[in-house]
Each structure stands twice: as structure tokens, then as C-alpha cells.
Amino acid sequence: MSTKSITIFSFFLLLQLNNFSHAQSSFQWGALPTLNFNKKLKKDWSLNSKIESRMLFQRGEIGGEPDKNYTYVLTDFSIIAAKKVGLNSRIGGGYLIRVQEDNIYHRFIQQFVIIQKLTKFRLAHRFLSDQTFSAIEDPEFRLRYRITSEVPLNGESVDSGEFYLKINNEYVNSLQSGSYDLEIRVIPFLGYEVNDAIKIETGLDYRVNSFFTNNTRHSYWMSLNFFFEL
Q: Which domains are seen in the chain, by residue range?
């Protein structure tokens, strides 16, 4: 699948999702800053730790009067260990703890990643399952698939001091209390490689869910991601 095909597919996907919009649709927008720390270990192992916060600036019903009060939503702390199991594949597992108001959520993660290095860009497929537990909610079980295309804007590979384009398209299937939901995410990023150890990415993280229950929610998060190789 080419980058052009992914872009066209994402565009038509957004058009189709727009058909779900109606008087009961809601929206929210805010910021999603993230710090990523990556460490390569011996015997093809690697470790990724991440800190991600979510801040809400505005929310409400589409067509109605929005609530413009700032709200700090949550912070996630996660760590994932992965091992290379093939020429271009990795298997991994990890743990995430979420702090949201006075509540704590525990999430266990399993993932498998395949990376295709093509002529002028890189394509990554991630298959992930996770299980979330807390004292105030029923357990949530999710199956996720994400396809990512990374395209250098100068030459055929990303080097220090160069920009690149990254497009994520993810499908998150959720089952909680016997209720199924599907969340679809489309995330275009503009990235910059400062040097071999530091990358910065920024973009709009768009998510839509709950359209099966006639209460569609559109989420817009301004993402700012920092990546550090240790």
C-alpha cells in the first residue's frame, strides 16, 4: 500500500464518518503532550517508556454552546519491553498506569509489530491487545490495529536536521460490560529529527467513536511528541 493510497483512504474515511454527525453528536478538543524514552538492550531487546498527559480546552454538543473551561484529564505512565523475532518484526508486552482525578487504572499490553522498509518510505503494522482494570469501572478489553506510513521530505531516508511526514490510521475495538464500541483514529504528523537521539513530532490526533449508539463523539487533540534515544 503506497502513501498516496493511505492518504486517499483516510480522506474518504473521514467523509464517511462525517455522515454519522447529527444533532446528538458531541465534540472535545485539547492537547496531548508526550515524552518517549527508548533504550536498546542486549540480545535484540528494547525498552520504551512513555509519559502522556491529556488536557481539555473545549467540549460540548455540535451546534450548541461549548464549555470552554480548561480541564486536566489524566496522565499515563507506561513501559513496554520488546524483542526482535524476525528480520522486520517485534513482539512486546508492557504495563500502563493511568492517573485520572483520584482514580487509578491498570492496563496490561501485548503487541506485535511488522515494519516494511520500502523504496521511499516506511510502513509499520501494529497489532495490539490490552486489558484495563480499575476499582470504579468494569474491566475493558481492546483489540487494536494501526498502520503507520513514514515519508522523508528530503531524499529517501530521514537524516539529522530533516523533516518527515507520518500518518497513523488506527482501529480500536473495545468490549466493556458486554457493550462493544469502535474508535477510529486518523493522525497526520509533521516530524523533525534533531539528531540521532532526538525527534519531535506534532499533528492533529482525530478520533471518532460511539457512532453505533447514535451518540457520536469527535475528539481533536493537538499532539506534541518528543522522542529520546538513551
A: 3-229 (2.40.160)
Element (H, E) at 135: none
- In tens, the pLDDT along 59-79 reads 998 888 889 999 999 999 999
Give the number of other Cβ atoms within 10 Å of residue 151's Cβ. Answer: 20
Helix (H) / strand (E) element for 138: namely: none
In the chain, where does DSSP find H-type helix? 3-18
Q: What angle do CA 219, 213, 61 make, to 5 degrees?
A: 45
**18 has a pLDDT exceeding 70:** no
Contact 101, 95 (CB under 8 A): no
| Terminal-residue alpha carbon distance, the chain | 33
pTM over 0.90: no
Could you say which DSSP state residue 69 is in?
Answer: -
Give me 199's grid cell: 525527534
Q: How far apart are CA 14 and CA 190, in angstroms?
A: 19
Q: What digits encode the pLDDT tens for the residues 123-164?
A: 999 999 999 999 999 999 999 999 999 999 988 888 899 999
